[in-house]
């Protein structure tokens, strides 16, 4: 159930559906997140206004991204941060590896970052000879299990408590127990030691404030605070779309993000990091490097329809709300970003050649759009991508079927003559077996409504 | 009020009683109903599968047929097909002439429950049906047309019907058009959540506003040998109409 490819989505999904543990874990987690989100959103009377406001801020940023990035860079540099620009994943990884090896790093601690998953940074660091330790509990679990995250904010959502207990017993020599306090304290003890040994700490970024050059990171475990403050060098990998104009904008986003993600009113920690320490007696790292990553984002920005994909704040609410994700989980998508937003972003980041199944992995029910804190019209984007896919990747049979279908539907004579358009469509596309494998097929009426009306 | 009935291709070919019932209900509440024999499909199958060119062809035909109508409104017993017509203007974003024509047809098009409640202000059509039933919110009616209270109000006013809310009534049934045959395993897995909720509700019938969802739900109920029947809102509202 891991390291799957998007090209085999349907097979991946079938395997996931056959995994009772996975489906049980998914049902519990997505239901809980979904209910908490609903309550948390309802606790703010101006929830809808906040969503509108957040989207307006994101739209403003995306229209003037160049200007806001320059402002962010200027202000971050003036506070002592070093800025690096990375065109793609390879460039970002190479910058980070060079920085870490330059520091003579042997142990690197990392806090949870989907962007580093996107660039496969861990593989690059390990290839450069470093020990990489994930310090977020969920990320630590999947690192031990040699898996990939299956959810944007809850990477080990697919695992049951029992599976985690077995993993810790095998990998960390823990006395077998399913007690949550015991499990977390086992991880904590191991991780504390790694924090102390680490030469470099690597984090992601939730928001980069242009006005002040501040990076904002939210979390619940305190591991980000440690990752960004204990080692002498802190490297933050930040997608270029993460910039927001003003410090006061964090007020809007910090209300929306935790409520949408975990259903919390506030995460346990919010770190606002502005440059490096000013005096030798201050605490904190000696060096702060911010790596600004493009990796396909400016391509997404260029298109007026797909641009809104960059408004995403990676809360994961659309995953929890998605009926498809609820059944199959994240690994089946075979991509770093799963679920509805993943089905939108992945084909744009990686190209549609190998990801053309993903935009079809949706019933277009619209639950994702309903919960999105920045009002991304995900169904609309999926339709747009489907429109890009059909001329290049649509099967010849399907393309001909739709041409014929249009011909029939444009002519009342053909429509009536084809005794029944439904029967025709069933015949030209092999719909019927796919349908009847799990459902009875409603028989076609002996007389259509057209006929009934004529004879009325 | 004069109404032009758009029955949808599914109803035309697979579930004519929904069309017959829609006409009966509309007449019962005082509408004059016409049916244009030239109508076919709203173009949604192509639109949702990524065939915008074919969708535009069929949408243009729909617009040409229905803009000729002298009726005050176009009414359809489908939230999904009505939502498609409401999407027409987006489909012609690059074509101002057709976009304007699309807009005027879209503005006249209403889903049945929405037409009864929002346009005619009729909450009770005078139907009777005896038994316990529940309602499934079809996604496009719910999220594109914002129909939540409208069907419930109409159902609550059916004499003899005991209405119970379905758990997660607003969750998708897994149909999703071509999704249901592209990924049948996922579609049925989603559907089974709905089926379990329906069975827990202990009802004789599950009612919805779209023939497509009802085919999906009904197909599984029948496969499982369930006694619960599926019914379109129009069929319920046409049940045992008085006067």
Description:
The complex is a heterodimer of chains A (456) and B (243). Chain A has 456 residues and is an alpha/beta fold. Helices cover 52% and strands 10% of the residues of chain A. Chain A has helices spanning 9-17, 20-42, 47-63, 65-78, 89-102, 114-119, 121-127, 137-144, 161-172, 180-197, 223-229, 249-261, 297-302, 317-321, 323-328, 339-350, 367-371, 378-393, 396-409, 412-417, 421-428, 431-436, 449-454; strands at residues 82-86, 107-110, 131-134, 200-203, 207-209, 214-219, 233-239, 243-244, 269-273, 287-293. Chain A starts with 8 loop residues before the first helix and ends with a helix. Chain B has 2 domains: 2-118, no CATH class; 124-237, Rossmann fold. In chain B, 53% of the residues lie in helices and 15% in strands. Chain B has helices spanning 9-14, 16-28, 44-49, 52-67, 79-91, 96-108, 112-119, 139-144, 149-156, 179-182, 184-201, 211-223, 233-237, and strands at residues 2-5, 32-34, 73-76, 109-111, 128-136, 159-164, 205-208, 229-232. A 4-stranded parallel β-sheet of chain B has the order 2-1-3-4, sandwiched between helices. In chain B, helix 12 (211-223) links the parallel strand 7 (205-208) and strand 8 (229-232). The longest helix of chain B has 18 residues, at 184-201. The mean pLDDT of chain B is 97. Chains A and B meet through helix 1, helix 15, helix 17, helix 18 and helix 19 of A and helix 1, helix 2, helix 3, helix 4 and helix 8 of B.
């Amino acid at each position: 159930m891991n390291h799957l490819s998007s090209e085999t989505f349907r097979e991946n999904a079938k395997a996931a559906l056959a995994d009772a543990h996975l489906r049980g874990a998914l049902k519990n987690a997505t239901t809980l997140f979904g209910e908490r989100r609903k309550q948390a959103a309802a606790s703010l009377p101006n929830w809808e206004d906040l969503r509108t406001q957040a989207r307006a801020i994101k739209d403003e940023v995306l229209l003037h991204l160049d200007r806001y990035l320059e402002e962010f860079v200027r202000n971050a540099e003036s506070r002592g941060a070093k800025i690096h620009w990375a065109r793609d994943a390879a460039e970002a990884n190479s910058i980070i590896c060079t920085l870490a090896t330059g520091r003579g790093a042997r142990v690197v601690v990392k806090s949870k970052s989907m962007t580093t998953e996107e660039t496969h940074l861990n593989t690059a660091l390990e290839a450069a000879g470093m020990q990489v330790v994930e310090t977020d509990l969920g990320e630590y679990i999947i690192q031990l299990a040699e898996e990939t995250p299956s959810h944007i904010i809850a990477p080990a959502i697919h695992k049951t408590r029992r599976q985690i207990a077995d993993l810790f017993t095998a990998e960390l020599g823990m006395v077998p127990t399913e007690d949550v306090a015991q499990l977390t304290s086992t991880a904590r003890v191991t991780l504390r030691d790694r924090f102390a040994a680490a030469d470099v700490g690597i984090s992601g970024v939730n928001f980069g404030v242009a006005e002040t050059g501040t990076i904002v990171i939210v979390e619940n475990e305190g591991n980000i605070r440690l990752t960004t403050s204990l080692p002498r060098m802190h490297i933050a990998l930040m997608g270029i779309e993460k910039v927001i104009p003003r410090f006061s904008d964090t007020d809007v986003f910090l209300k929306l993000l935790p409520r949408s993600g975990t259903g919390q009113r506030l995460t346990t920690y919010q770190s606002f990091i502005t440059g490096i320490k000013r005096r030798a007696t201050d605490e904190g790292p000696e060096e702060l490097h911010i790596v600004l990553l493009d990796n396909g984002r400016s391509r997404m920005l260029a298109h007026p329809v797909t641009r809104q994909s960059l408004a995403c704040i990676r809360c994961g609410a659309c995953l929890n709300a998605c009926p498809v994700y609820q059944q199959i989980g994240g690994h089946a998508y075979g991509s770093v970003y799963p679920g509805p937003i993943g089905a939108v972003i992945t084909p744009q980041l990686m190209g549609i050649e190998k990801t053309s199944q993903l935009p079809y992995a949706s019933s277009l029910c619209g639950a994702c759009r309903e919960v999105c804190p920045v009002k991304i019209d995900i169904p609309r984007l999926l339709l747009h991508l489907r429109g890009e896919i059909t001329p290049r990747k649509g099967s010849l049979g399907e393309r001909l079927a739709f041409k014929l279908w249009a011909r029939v539907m444009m002519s009342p004579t053909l429509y009536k003559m084809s005794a029944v358009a439904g029967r025709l469509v069933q015949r030209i596309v092999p719909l019927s077996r796919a349908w009847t494998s799990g459902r009875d097929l409603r028989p076609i009426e002996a007389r259509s409504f057209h006929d009934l009306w004529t004879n009325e | 009020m004069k109404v032009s009935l758009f029955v949808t291709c599914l109803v035309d070919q697979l579930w004519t009683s929904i069309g017959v019932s829609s006409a009966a209900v509309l007449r019962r509440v005082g509408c004059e109903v016409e049916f244009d024999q030239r109508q076919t499909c709203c173009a949604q199958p192509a639109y949702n599968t990524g065939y915008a060119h074919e969708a535009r062809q069929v949408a243009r035909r729909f617009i040409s047929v229905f803009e000729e109508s002298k009726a005050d409104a176009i009414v359809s017993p489908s939230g999904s097909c009505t939502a498609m017509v409401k999407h027409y203007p987006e489909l012609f974003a690059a074509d101002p002439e057709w976009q304007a024509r699309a807009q005027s047809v879209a503005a006249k098009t209403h889903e049945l429950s929405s037409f009864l409640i929002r346009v005619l202000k009729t909450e009770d059509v005078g139907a009777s049906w005896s038994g316990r039933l529940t309602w499934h919110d079809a996604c496009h009616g719910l999220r594109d047309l914002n129909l939540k209270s409208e069907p419930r109000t109409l159902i609550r006013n059916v004499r003899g019907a005991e209405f119970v809310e379905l758990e997660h009534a607003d969750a998708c049934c897994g149909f999703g058009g071509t999704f249901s045959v592209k990924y049948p395993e996922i579609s049925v897995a989603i559907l089974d959540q709905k089926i379990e909720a329906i069975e827990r509700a202990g009802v004789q019938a599950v009612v919805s506003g779209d023939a497509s969802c009802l085919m999906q739900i009904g197909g599984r109920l029948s496969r499982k040998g369930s006694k619960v029947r599926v019914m379109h809102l129009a069929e319920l509202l046409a049940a045992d109409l008085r006067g």
